[in-house]
Amino acid sequence: MNDHARFPYDEFIDGLEEAIYWHNAWFSRGMRQLILPTNGSEDLVARDAHLHCKLAGFFGYLPTPPGQEELKAQIEDLHQQMHALMREALLENAAGQQLNAETLDELEEAQAVFFITLHGLFRKVMEDKCAISKAA
Fold first, then answer.
1. Nearest to 30 by CA among 54, 55, 49
2. pLDDT at 128
3. Which residue stretches of the chain have pLDDT < 70?
């Protein structure tokens, strides 16, 4: 039996959908804090916040889809970059610096590239699952 046939596609897809939801919730909380400054919660400003995010947790508990190691690594790098950019913006904001368009542009761009790449992984996993279902 090959790696594709043994991979837990349904569990991966369900987990990825949930992790995306929680990541969007994190991003929304960060943007809210930038707009309506309040004290930052640790999961938004910690240096290792990306490791405590449910998306990182998801990637840590399930195997990588067969043949998608490079794409997964790219997503993990983008995820870390997004958390770092949000952290930087929140800390600057908390220090009294006004949010500038360049910082917001960077954050929006990182979010867009991240989700485009994440969607690419989702599509590949769905395609593999469908191919295996047809072959069975």
1. 49
2. 92
3. 1-3, 39-40
3-state class (DSSP) for residue 66:
coil
Structure tokens at 110: 């990182």
As to burial, measured by CB atoms within 10 angstroms (0-12 exposed, 13-18 middle, 19+ buried), residue 127 is exposed
Start-to-end C-alpha separation, the chain: 12
CA–CA distance, 48 with 51 (Å, rounded to integer): 6
Q: List helix spans (H) across the chain.
A: 3-6, 9-35, 42-45, 49-52, 54-61, 69-94, 101-135
3-state secondary structure of 36: coil
Q: What is the pTM of this model?
A: 0.85
CB-CB contact of 33 with 44 (8 Å): yes
Residues 33 and 80: their CA atoms lie apart, in Å, by 19
67-85 as b/e, with b when 16 or more CB fall inside 10 Å? Answer: ebeebeebbeebbbbbbeb
